[in-house]
Amino acid sequence: MRNVVAIAGKELRSYFASPVAYIITGLFALIFGWFYVNSLAWFVERSMGMDQFGGGGSVNVNQDLIKYLLLNATVVMLFLLPMITMRTYAEEKRSGTIELLLTSPVRDIEIILGKFFGALGLYCVMLLVTVLYLAVLFIYGNPEWKPIASAYLGLVLLGGSFISFGLFISSLTKNQIVAGVGTFTLVLMLWIIDWVGDQAGSTVREVVAYLSITKHFEDFAKGVIDTKHVVYYLSFIAFGLFLTAKSVDTERWRG
Question: What is the pTM of this model?
């Protein structure tokens, strides 16, 4: 475990030693801020409309603002997380340091987990930016914190799934652009797979709905932590890391 922590720390420091971390975090803060301002304006306008005309229901800051705001954040992740993972193994191959890694006394699984947690650490830094935005709502409003904590747990698991498959795609090539585009394409397919199910029969629809990586996040966004969704994401992460281990092992035997 000590090796995993050491490698994760090295990976995280390498992100912040280059412009990558600052550009990705800055882009995320900018786009999320745009969603935040527009969602808040819509929420305030709707609240004032209901107060003005009276009756006709009420608005809830958790369900009518924060939930949709964090759902929009997952769309941004779809584009930005491949930018984090594309360099993990592809850069090692391009610079020739992959041979040093493969011949080092550290086990492959420790390297893979170290790279995974390093990328996950940068992703969590990005999520901390969104916490600052939501903190303003606690100052001027009274949102419930439990649904928000549930949604953030879902975001971490969803992001972990993206990162694990990003590591796998990056381990297949020495070209960072190919790794980034490949990860984006794979995640996009898992994202829109339930659209195919809408046109299919009930059995196929249930299968593709289960495979859809975003369907499992919807309950988290509503404040519901269902173990089946947690197991799905953890299985997804484990499968991605397993494929990465197999890819690295193949690279070792190729020499």
Answer: 0.86
